[in-house]
Amino acid sequence: MEHHRTPLIVYANFHSDLAVHLAAHEVLDRWAEHASREIWLTRPGDVLVTPVPLSLAFRRYAGELTEMPDESVTVLTVPPVAGSPFAEAVHRAGLMGTLRSLAAARPGIQLLPIALDVSTTDLAAQLGVPMAPYGPSGISPGALSIAYRLNTKAAFRALAADLGIRMPAGRCCDGSELEGAVTAMLTRHERVVVKPNRSAGGYQLHFVTRTEPWSAPGPPAGEWVVEEHLDVARSLSVQMDVGKAGPRVVFSGEMHTAGGAYDGYFSPVEESTNATTKELAQWAWALGLHLARHGYAGSCGIDAVLDPQGRLFATESNVRRTATTAPHALVDRLSRAAALSEPAWLLATGRSQAPHTFTAVAELLRESGLAWAPSRGEGVVLYGDTASDGRAWPYAVIAADRRRVKELQALLADAMQFDVPL
């Protein structure tokens, strides 16, 4: 397997004020439950700082798949502090000395966060390590501010208008104007969606129709966006990487959503939507160039929806790593090792009728012939540790094409006796 040129502190700062306000600690805790997937970004010599523990069985499984001893990655578990950024939890856990020692033993180490936020840049400075991917030259002026701005709905709407990116009809307002804005929008549209200006993962989305009574959530505070609620044929996303050479498309695909929240992914999209994918990539390229001009480097993406008439509408930008970034790194690593140049891949979570241990499920995959096999260039990977109840199983299916991915998924559902449609 290919190694990093320099080691990393992979910093799973799900508790960040970049995507939602820190007061929403319950949703941040829920996101943090998926921190085990960050293991796929690591190489021997790296350090993973995670808000939830990783089971030994999962670490050994990840090490076997990536051909690196599980003990070659140092894992530090930091219990999160409600209402505080992850850096505060690191300080309260008394781990700054440990991190400094680990960094000193790894020349050239850099800190790679999920979200580029103020507390994380301060933490990196206190540790005396550069932030990845900026390196020793440091974070460019404007990078922090553009990341904070474009993780809001209002700022992306304004930029989209300048870049020629199509968005649903809508308007921005503060809390005191929210009910009036919803009423006005409903005179022109049968349904609207109400979103906090800084929101992600379906947090505090409200779907409102003309026929259902509605009142503004909570006190009239904060900023909001009210948009036409479109009929959705498909939800799509494109992920970019902004580097010194400019932006590049890393992958795109179709999102599965539930209540406006991410619930799975399938890449690439069907060939029938190639024109749509091209348009989405053009939008992402324009966003990436804008971010690069403001000094930002790293992951970013655009979420969008395709309506029944085949029109594409962007819904938000994500200037950070997302739920698909680390699993895609896994897909890329395994596919390269198996000489699978353009894999199709799916991310989902299945729920088994009975609880199982991680070891038992991994063995079941091997016995059923569904486990990832480099020699065949296909199979199923458990990309995240199981939930505490032993029933929820995040998995990836990788194969040469979409048809084969769907076949393997159906076989998996039968072998695992999943009790919900996938």
**Low-pLDDT ranges:** none
Class inferred from helices and paired strands: alpha+beta
Distance between the termini: 32 Å
Tertiary shape = globular
Q: How many DSSP-defined strands?
A: 16
Q: In which order are the strands of the major sheet placed? A: 13-12-9-10-11-14-16-15
Q: Taking all residues together, what is the mean pLDDT?
A: 93
Strand content: 15-25%
Number of helices: 12
Series of secondary-structure elements, N-terminal to C-terminal: EHEHEHHEHHHEHEEEEEEHEEHEHEEH
Q: What percent of the residues sit in helical stretches (DSSP H or I)? A: 25-40%
Largest sheet: 8 strands, antiparallel
Radius of gyration: 21 Å
Would you kindly provide a brief summary of this structure?
The chain has 422 residues and is of the alpha+beta class. It has helices at residues 25-32, 56-66, 86-92, 96-104, 118-127, 143-150, 153-163, 178-186, 274-293, 325-337, 358-367, 402-416, and strands spanning 8-11, 47-50, 74-77, 110-113, 170-174, 191-196, 206-209, 223-228, 234-243, 246-258, 261-267, 298-306, 312-318, 344-351, 379-381, 392-399.
